[in-house]
Write a structure and sequence with these properties.
The protein is mainly alpha-helical. It is 55% helix and 0% strand. It comes from Deinococcus irradiatisoli.
Length: 73
């Protein structure tokens, strides 16, 4: 069976965001399966898309994006 082709995305994140990714990956991991930071990002993308599809308020996400710690430089 051929390997699933994936697109690569590079983003710049702060040290605090990297620490959150590391902490989340650690918390989601179990002795049987280690979760990578990339898997956490993919999970977050799917969760946000699902919530938006279910009518989640855009204003909450826009407020988070407007926060200084998430803004692109």
């Amino acid at each position: 069976m051929p390997k699933k082709e994936r697109k690569r995305l590079q983003v710049v994140i702060s040290e605090e965001q990297d620490a959150l990714l590391t902490k989340t990956a650690y918390e989601l991991s179990s002795p049987e399966r280690l979760i990578s930071k990339s898997e956490v990002v993919r999970l977050a993308i799917e969760k946000i898309a699902k919530e938006l599809g279910e009518g989640e308020e855009l204003s909450e996400y826009r407020a988070l994006l407007d926060a200084d710690d998430l803004r692109d430089d």
